[in-house]
Amino acid sequence: MVALVPSSGQKNDWQPSRPGKRSTPYLLLLPGLAWLSVFFIIPLFSLLSTSLMVPLGLSPDDGYMPAFNVANYAEALNEFSEQYLRSFLFAGLATIFALLIAYPLAYFIAFKSGKWKNILLVLVVAPFFASFLIRTYAWKTILADDGFINTFVATLGVLPDDRILSTPIAVVAGLTYNFLPFMTLPLYAALDKMDPRLIEASSDLYAKPLSGFFKVTFPLSLPGVVAGTLLTFIPAAGDYINAQLLGGPRDKMIGNVIESQFIRIRDYPTAAAMSFVLLLTILILVSVYVRRAGTEELL
Amino acid sequence: MAETKNLPKAKVPRPSTWHRINFWIRDHLIAFYGILALIYLFAPIAVVALFSFNKPVGRTNSTWNEFSLEAWTDICRDPTICTAVGTSLRISIVSTVVATLLGTLIAFALVRHRFRGRSTTNLMIFLPMATPEVVLGASLLALFLNLGLPLGQTTVMIAHIMFSISFVVVTVKSRLQGMDPRLEEAAQDLYADEKSTFRYVTFPLVAPGIGAAALLAFSLSFDDYIITNFNSGTTVTFPMYVWGAAQRGIPAQVNVIGTIMFVAALSMVLIAQVIGRAKTKQ
Asked: Among A7, A26, A118, whose Cβ lies nearest the Cβ of B170?
């Protein structure tokens, strides 16, 4: 299960000396890559061409015609910039919270759990096996206005409306929860690979525990941090289930808009343009982030 | 350790009680925190299981009323639930089999062969995982609409296979990379031909990775709502049913099925762990 972590950059790929035919790897790749080309790459082009179409009439039933209508993008950005910003804000917050929760948990499993390690790893992945939707509904029950958490928080009087459900807090909490295993596993994999003697060495050299952590442990776990934050941020930015179930009408994310434009309103070109903007923004953010984390010392 | 025993004990002043409490807290803080995090992970699942035993008042099953086994003994009272579960199982099984096969072949090619286009292949595997589900669903829908293909079970299967392949590749690949190549070399030194090396050495060693990949593919498919919602037409999978039911109140039977799925998957993983441990002991 730890394998959820993209294991790119590993150099220990073993190349056998066995005499194989040159065509063997291509035969192995062919069916899978063909599937991905037809049902992942070509659809992206299909989405691109849809995003440039013009409507043939006023109703979606009249259909759309291929064109080069860039105005769809202007519409997507002008009308829904608020939802884009909210999506990235919510996803960013959820990623930070997930990191804060998952790091100590992964550290505990990697270094302090002893013979319980495997069981604990299974327990971290386990929530993943309970349906995403049902889990999110359960949060609705837990955070309900008459539930004990909400009653308790309401007595503290820190919330403006004395409720958690239907607020951004609930959406961010739901996102944090739902993608937590995606954060924990890569962190665990990175920490587990680490040689504990390095940490010992730092304390032998009179590093205080905290500075030893920030100078040795954390930098060495950076690949896990990068993988985990990406695996959390990307699905969280595109998610609309949490916003739909836990948020109020003013907490809609870009996923909600894309879904309703595509499936209910059937304004395919605008919806396709919005999807494309979302994809491109994420790819740009990700590549900037990976480059920063890869070449510059974060601390 | 034996050496230190013979040394005379240094006269160190006993740490004060306050200090010892301080040390104990510092030692156990991380464990305490880990347990808290696990409680957080399991809280909603406990709620799901608990409310499967509830006898809801009216339509919504979100306030505790009274203990009842009604939902457990009469899962199919609303027959559409069971039809939806059946549809989901059918789609997930097909998708799991195809995705596991295609993904495993790619993983073997990536780890065991040198070839041109390796980085393109890696990119093709990584991209679907880096694309938000709404975009995956929307782009497939755009393709199906442009081709005029009718939406239904087949289009859902196509979509599920597409997004599962990458996860299978990554899982099987890491298992293959973790294998000791000397085991296979040893088999070949002992005059095993390529076929029997694969059958008696390579495959049994990779099998747990393939199994884990299949389980992952199955839960991804069974659980998927976002991509399915774009490509299902009138087909109702279990998550689609749950989403629709939410408008009028989710019956306790949904909690029952959620609990069964969770317990089944968890026990499969635990059994695999126990078997794995028994094997390493041998």
From this structure: A7
Cβ pair B102:A31 closer than 8 A: yes
- Global ipTM: 0.85
Q: What is the pLDDT of residues B85-103, one digit of tens each?
A: 999 999 999 999 999 999 9
Report how far apart, in Å, the C-alpha atoms of B173 and of each of A7, A143, A223 are: 8, 40, 18
Q: Which amino acid is at B98?
A: V
* Cα nearest neighbour of A112 on chain B: B31
- Whole-angstrom Cα distance, residue A136 to residue A151? 20
A6/B129 CB distance under 8 A: yes
Question: B143, B163, B196, B206: which to substitute to probe chain A, counting the most A Cβ within 10 Å?
Answer: B143
Distance from the first to the final alpha carbon of chain B: 31
A183-234 confidence digits (pLDDT tens):
999 999 889 888 878 877 877 787 777 777 888 888 888 888 998 999 899 9
Cβ pairs bridging A and B (under 8 Å)? 291
Considering only alpha carbons, which residue of chain B is nearest residue A44?
B139
pLDDT digits (tens, 9 = 90+) for B18-39: 777 777 777 788 888 888 998 9
Chain B residues with CB-CB distance to A99 below 8 A: none
Which residue in A64, A26, A20, A16 sits closest to A272, CA to CA?
A: A64
Listed in sequence order, the residues at least 6 apart from B87 whose beta carbon sits closer than 8 Å to its beta carbon are: B153, B235, B236, B237, B238
